[in-house]
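Sorry to interrupt, but I need a hand with the structure work. Could you write out one complete protein record for me, on any chain you like? Could you add the entry underneath, on a fresh line?
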Amino acid sequence: MRRADRPDDVRILGRRTGRGSELSRDQTSLALPARLPIDAWMRIGQDLGTAADSATWWLGDWLVYGQDRYPERYRRAIDETALDYQTLRNYAWVARKFPPGRRRPVLSMQHHAEVASLDPEVQDNWLDRAQQGGWSRNELRRRIRTATTPGAGARPIAVELRLAVTQARHGLWEDAADRANRDLSAWVLEVLDAAARRATEDRERMRIAEAG
């Protein structure tokens, strides 16, 4: 007997079970039956978690399609929805990094996001380990940080930088990040690193010129 055919099963779609119990839901609520076996309750949670993670991939693919097919119009279309643009951009960034054939169904999009900035071979290695070890997203993040921290016992420095920019400038940066196929934060860091390297090189050239 399939799981969905069990008489005590309760479906997310609100279908009645063999005992007359009913699960109903609308846009802002989920109503569970008064008498719900714990195994059915756990299955509902698992199904909801799977549906929620699937939706992030679907949204990412949806935005990628818009970016590729309607590059001049997709931003306006998103602005007219109730969806958060920055969140969608993050979904799209991860979706581009991982074509459908490279996605791991047993791992969440958040797992994939943790390794999205790495080289493909390194991505696959970490995802393989996370899948085999049953790691949570936080555990995967912790292990990556431990493996990439230079020096024994060294801790990465977390710096929060806040900038006051106009909407036009913010949009210009987002468009540039889109064209570079980068997350906005990653793109900003790359631009700042490049500018810092150029400034250092310019100072070194001036020092050499003055010394000569």
About this structure: Residues 1-20 have pLDDT under 50 and may be disordered. Residues 38-69 form the longest helix (32 residues). The radius of gyration is 24 Å. The first strand starts at residue 24 and ends at 25.
